[in-house]
């Protein structure tokens, strides 16, 4: 079966395909992302803005795919343009599947624009998928639609997961080893409120003998002249660094190998989100055996085991974040997911997608 997936080159989409062929199910061939600068060419690195979202692309290429599957990447499309896309798919007789990753867009300060897009996409889709039961229930409540719940596949490649698992099994217990808590402020999204979270964490980690609060951020946020320079955050972090209260690391975008190495070095990663739905970062931590402290907004707790604290648009509850840090210290690092465990899950997710596509055809 030929599937036009938006986008095709994202790691989430690549890991929807099985590691091993599934008996009795057809192979899924996903169309490569057309190059935005030249839609006649495919690309594996630059997919924004997605060419496949153009109604004219659907009309010109309808004979090249059997199912259209939207994941994300439609931020810049108006509700009217998305309605034109859905109409083009109906005219072409091609089933439309939409995976609802975000019920609140982490890149938008307010929810109105994304809600208007969802008001088009969710009713128009022939089938819906989401990642957690809570998100499916919200979809049912708001739009009266039933969504298939399929878990997020692994993010880290299987060999790296196996290596992390082997290292953890062989790692001796060092009671005096520093307890490292990480916050990644990267290129700030509107969904993040790191300032109040960091103020609480600085006190919580300071109370732990050998505790280290590591803050990683991108240069565009923390250095003057950066496109998203946040002077107040940068000043606070530099001041805390001078006082020896944080281990500050400023760098550009990390390639995967360096990102996995960084995550694996942490005992716990704290997600500083004030709103959101699901998290790929959380999945990477699960793959590598890094504990996660997640806010109680969204459906992070349903993705996998997390320690929860209260954080939403109204602010951070300091007591719950202190308690989550103490709990992470008491529990110790979780075991990394074995490559085999995540492969079994991926096989099931791939099979479910193939069954769904075939039923729509």
UniProtKB/TrEMBL annotation:
Gene3D superfamilies with a match to the protein in the record: Glycogen Phosphorylase B (3.40.50.2000)
Superkingdom, taxonomy of origin: Bacteria
Keyword terms, alphabetized: Transferase
Protein name: Glycosyltransferase family 4 protein
Region (Disordered): 24-43
Organism of provenance: Microbacterium caowuchunii
GO molecular function, one term: transferase activity
The UniProt record lists the keyword Transferase: yes
Composition skew (Basic and acidic residues), residue ranges: 27-41
């Amino acid at each position: 079966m030929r599937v036009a997936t938006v986008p095709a080159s994202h790691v989430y989409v690549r890991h929807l395909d099985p590691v091993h062929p599934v008996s009795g199910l057809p192979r899924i061939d996903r169309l490569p992302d057309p190059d935005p600068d030249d839609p006649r060419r495919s690309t594996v690195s630059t997919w924004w803005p997605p060419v496949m979202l153009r109604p004219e692309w659907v009309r010109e290429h309808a004979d090249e795919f059997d199912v259209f599957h939207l994941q994300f990447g439609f931020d810049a499309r108006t509700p009217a343009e998305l309605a034109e896309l859905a109409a083009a798919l109906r005219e072409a007789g091609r089933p439309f599947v939409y995976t609802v990753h975000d019920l609140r867009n982490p890149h938008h300060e307010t929810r109105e624009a994304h809600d208007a897009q969802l008001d088009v996409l969710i009713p128009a889709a022939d089938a819906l998928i989401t990642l957690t039961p809570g998100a499916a229930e919200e979809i049912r409540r708001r739009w009266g639609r039933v969504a298939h719940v399929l878990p997020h596949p692994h993010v880290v490649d299987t060999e790296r997961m196996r290596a992390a698992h082997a290292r953890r099994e062989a790692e001796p217990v060092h009671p005096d080893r520093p307890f490292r808590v990480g916050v990644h402020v990267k290129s700030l999204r509107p969904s993040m409120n790191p300032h109040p979270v960091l103020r609480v964490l600085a006190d919580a980690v300071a109370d732990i003998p050998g505790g280290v609060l590591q803050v990683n951020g991108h240069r565009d946020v923390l250095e003057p002249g950066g496109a998203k320079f946040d002077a107040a955050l940068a000043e606070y972090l530099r001041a805390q660094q001078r006082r020896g209260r944080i281990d500050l690391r400023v760098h550009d975008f990390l390639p995967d190998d360096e990102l996995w190495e960084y995550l694996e070095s942490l005992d716990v990663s704290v997600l500083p989100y004030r709103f959101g739905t699901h998290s790929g970062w959380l999945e990477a931590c699960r793959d590598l055996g890094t504990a996660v402290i997640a806010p109680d907004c969204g459906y992070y707790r349903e993705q996998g085991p997390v320690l929860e604290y209260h954080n939403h648009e109204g602010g951070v509850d300091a007591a719950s974040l202190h308690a989550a840090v103490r709990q992470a210290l008491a529990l110790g690092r979780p075991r990394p997911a074995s490559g085999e465990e995540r492969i079994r899950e991926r096989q099931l997710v791939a099979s479910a997608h193939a069954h769904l596509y075939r039923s729509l055809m």
